[in-house]
Amino acid sequence: AFAETNSFTLDFILRLCRIYIIISLLSFINSLLKAVYNVYSEREQFRDRPLKGMLQTMQVILWFVGIIIVVSILIGKSPLSLLAGLGASAAILMLVFKDSIMGFVSGVQLSANDMLKVGDWIAMPKYGADGTVIEVTLNTVKVRNWDNTITTIPPYLLVSDSFQNWRGMRESGGRRVKRSINIDMTSVKFCTPEMLDKYRKIRLLKDYVDQTEQVVRQYNEEHGIDNSILVNGRRQTNLGVFRAYLTAYLQSLPDINQELTCMVRQLQPTDHGIPMELYFFCAIKDWVPYEAVQSDVFDHVLAIIPEFDLQVFQSPSGRDFRQAFSADVS
């Protein structure tokens, strides 16, 4: 009986030693993986890779295998037989690790298709995300919004739903500006000789006015147009000259990429006037300088509109009504 007790005790101690060795080996491998992650995550070429998600995936596999081996040592069976027995409970395991499995598969898709990287600016309004990706893990993608809040999104939602990635804009030659100003339609009119003389003094317009006036004069002469009535023939308008000035002005700015689309166009007139849209790409893509360039352009546009005998459409305010009422009373 004493020998059997000693044999049982010895066997129990051997199993504990094996378990301790297995756990120590797992801890060593886990620490090694963390060290490799820390080294490569600091390198510039790997900063935009989902290294943390890969690390967590390897840790889950590592500890899953380790637990199987530890249990097999405790019950005295082969790890392969335990793995074969787990086949019957695979459905339960898939339910328990559903998010991890979906996160792993989605992370592989995001990385393989180059859909998302750490540092990308993404927008996903459905989930309140609009900012920079700061972390991609096995179960979550963390986005730091512009108001410094953090939005956490499961990776599989980024694969199943649509999101906007602004990386293409940052890697391109410019950031788009697409804004319009409404012109009062009642201020649009034909240009008189006095108006054309005034526009010729504008450096950006001199060549345009001369060339266009020559084309107009030649057309009217060839077709015997009666110039006493302005509706006959072809005439320059203050709105057309204004549009030409805006085009020349945008082409003269150094902060606008001239290799990309740059145009000024009229949109469909509405009850708020004629929208005159400026469509161009700013070569500066960082948010604050980009907004400064855009504001400078429209500051200038708003300031020079009266020089073309045009008026900006603006809905009347209470002050306008008070002034009109005061004028009627007086």
Walkthrough of the structure:
This protein has a five-stranded antiparallel beta sheet. The protein has helices at residues 2-41, 51-75, 79-86, 90-96, 98-112, 155-160, 167-171, 193-200, 206-222, 238-252, 287-304, 318-329; strands spanning 121-124, 129-136, 141-145, 150-153, 164-165, 175-183, 263-266, 274-282. By secondary structure, the chain is of the alpha+beta class. The longest helix has 40 residues, at 2-41. Helix 1 (2-41) runs antiparallel to helix 2. The radius of gyration is 36 Å and the shape is rod-shaped.
Please give a quick description of this structure:
The protein has twelve helices and eight strands.
Ordered list of secondary-structure elements with their pairings:
Blueprint: H1 2-41, H2 51-75, H3 79-86, H4 90-96, H5 98-112, E1 121-124, E2 129-136, E3 141-145, E4 150-153, H6 155-160, E5 164-165, H7 167-171, E6 175-183, H8 193-200, H9 206-222, H10 238-252, E7 263-266, E8 274-282, H11 287-304, H12 318-329
Antiparallel strand pairs: 1-2, 1-5, 2-3, 3-4, 6-8, 7-8
